[in-house]
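Quick start: read one record
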Amino acid sequence: MMNSVCRIRPDNFLQEVASERRPVLLLCMPHGEAFPSQAKIIEDIATRYANNIKVGLLEEAYIETFKANLHIHGTPTYLLMVQGKEKNRIIGLTDMETLTTFIFSSQ
């Protein structure tokens, strides 16, 4: 599971997010009850739109660090990053259609 989704940690953020030429969709979410459904959605997006966007999951062990550094106040939070800078975000559980619209209307 999640083979198309990069695991993002503080030590690889620069390489995987800031240096990436494609937009990067990041998910910040603890691995609770709703996580499997949201993980499936980002995996589907990563597979379907691999040529257009990179998808990353902020590692659960570092969520508090990412929340502080990226000013995340609630989870799940989806961030769309372009060259390491936040372009847009949505907070809350979502579905494939909403997330796809979010990605392509934010670019």
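The first strand starts at residue 6 and ends at 8.
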